[in-house]
Amino acid sequence: LYESGQERIEGSVRTHDGGSLPMELSGAVLTDGEGETVGFVGVGRDISQRKERERELERYRRVVETMGDGIYALDGNGTYVHVNEVLTELSGYDRAEWSAMDPADLFGDDDIERFEDAIRRLLSEPERAVETVEAALRTTDGETVPIEVTLTLRPMEDGVFRATVGVVRDLCAGR
After folding, report:
1. φ, ψ for residue 120 (rounded to 5)?
2. What are the backbone angles phi and psi of residue 173, rounded to the nearest 5°?
3. What is the spatial distance between Cα 97 and Cα 72, in angstroms, rounded to a whole number?
4. What is the side-by-side order of every strand in the sheet holding 80-83?
5. Contact predicate 165/73, CB 8 Å
6. Are 70 and 83 in contact (CB under 8 A)?
7. Coil, helix or strand for 161?
């Protein structure tokens, strides 16, 4: 606090009933007109809800990363914004490579057309929750892997299409 003039830390405080409460504490040095320290000011904020949300997100992340199928999120511009470890292992591409790729880098024209048709159906029939598409995923070594993708639309904002999420199953796995 003396060195930077302000500081923010997280910790916990003991409550009157013997429990603890996660807190974020922010402090700043108070100075006079000559720059001399005359005191400190601090604010404590209960971060219980944020910590619970972080735990919930971590549980979700573990589920996405450890399930047996690949998972991706694709934004409305065709950019992969998330792929799980299973999908990187299946394809041979790492996450950075996925984020720089276009679906056309991974699939043939016929497959792209099937995906686009599925998205159009989801957009035109709001009661339809998911679509399933079979395709051939091109891997880093140039081979193709037959897959089944169950895709859905991510929630739309203001009625504007934003993205899709898909679960990818290797159709050759276990054979």
Report:
1. -60, -40
2. -60, 135
3. 13
4. 80-83, 70-75, 163-170, 144-153, 131-138
5. yes
6. yes
7. coil
